[in-house]
Amino acid sequence: MGNQWRAQFDAEVTFANGGGLRTDGFRLDIPGRDIADDELAALFVRHLGLLMVAEVRITGRTIVEEPHKGGRGVAAGAGPDDSSRRRLVELSHVVTDGMTTLPGWPAPRITEWLTREASRANYAPGTEFQVGRIDMIANTGTYLDTPAHRFAGGADLAGTPLDRLADLPGVVVRVPAGTRAVDRLLLASYDVAGHAVLLHTGWSAHFGTDRYGAPEAPYLTGDGARALVDAGAALVGIDSINIDDMSPAAAGERPAHSALLAAGVPIVEHLTGLDALPPTGFRFTAAPPMVAGMGTFPVRAFAVLNPT
């Protein structure tokens, strides 16, 4: 039998968008007899392919030594196929002079270092150039966090490998409206290994307004971040003000940043346009310039649909 174990249990499921589900005497293959209830709940959600799960209550569980029957994987749909041709989808906010990304943080200033008029003195008649200048903090617009943003000695922009930033298979996690905390259960049914995991909360609709930085902004919990690390996510992005809870109740803690960046998983914050993506079947890129000694920088984030 090879010390294979199965759990038998009752489960009550509550969905974030309303309704529920109850099972009695459900049997499920498990990796070991010492599985905790929260781990069993996540395995149950993934086995059934349940989405938008808010809570799972496990009762009456027993562990039996029994050969595995095989789990049913979640078939990842290819999403709406409105065209067979390759298509690019923009996922970044436009950086403009004086824009607000994080309320209270310095805005970018975009000017000209060399004007077209001034350049004419340097070139042949009819030839002119313009050279712009931008003064900004690194956390402007849609930007990437590398391990150096959180940890001294962590990989910076120049040290983060391209295979963590470019041409990654992508998966979109649709977060139910009104849900703040994206936790392990909401993520459990997704196959994220080697993927860019993009959390679509819809909060980008408030970008550039006072509401964007409100305490109710959606975020990824520390437990959810650890689940993504354990499942092998390559990159995690969100269309909210921060991947962590920014409310006063969080007291400045940053568990999602800490878990992801400690594991070398880059973070992309302030995404937009995620509603235009299918659940899977696309490639994602968010690559910054190779600047040594910096941990964050704006990116041109985009997706390729129907890649060939």
Contiguous low-pLDDT stretches (5 residues minimum) are: 72-83
Give the spatial strand order of the biggest sheet: 4-16-14-8-10-12-13-7-15
Distance between the termini: 44 Å
Task: Summarize the main sheet.
Answer: 9 strands, mixed
Strand content: 25-35%
Secondary structure tally: strands: 16
Count of DSSP-assigned helices: 6
Shape: elongated
Please tag this protein with its features.
308 residues, 13% helix, alpha/beta
Explain the layout of strands and helices.
Blueprint: E1 5-15, E2 20-30, H1 37-48, E3 53-65, E4 87-90, E5 109-114, H2 116-119, E6 131-135, E7 143-145, H3 147-150, E8 168-174, E9 181-182, H4 184-187, E10 196-200, E11 219-220, H5 222-230, E12 235-238, H6 255-262, E13 267-269, E14 282-285, E15 296-298, E16 302-305
Parallel strand pairs: 8-10, 9-11, 10-12, 12-13
Antiparallel strand pairs: 1-2, 1-3, 4-16, 5-6, 7-13, 7-15, 8-14, 14-16
Helix pairs in contact: 5-6
